[in-house]
Amino acid sequence: MRRELAVKVFAVSDVHVDYQANAAWVEGLSLTEHRRDVLILAGDISDSLPRLERCFDALALRFRQVLFVPGNHDLWVARDNAAPDSLQKFEQVRAAAARSGVSMSPFHHGRLTIVPLLGWYDFSFGLPGADLLKTWADFRACRWPEGFDAARITAHFLAMNRYQRRDEAETIISFSHFLPRVDLMPAGVPEHVAALFPVFGTHQLEPQIRLLRSKIHIYGHSHLNRNLVIDGIRYVNNAFAYPSETRIAAKALACIFETDE
Question: Among 243, 250, 256, 260, which one is least packed by beta carbons within 10 Å?
Answer without folding.
Answer: 260
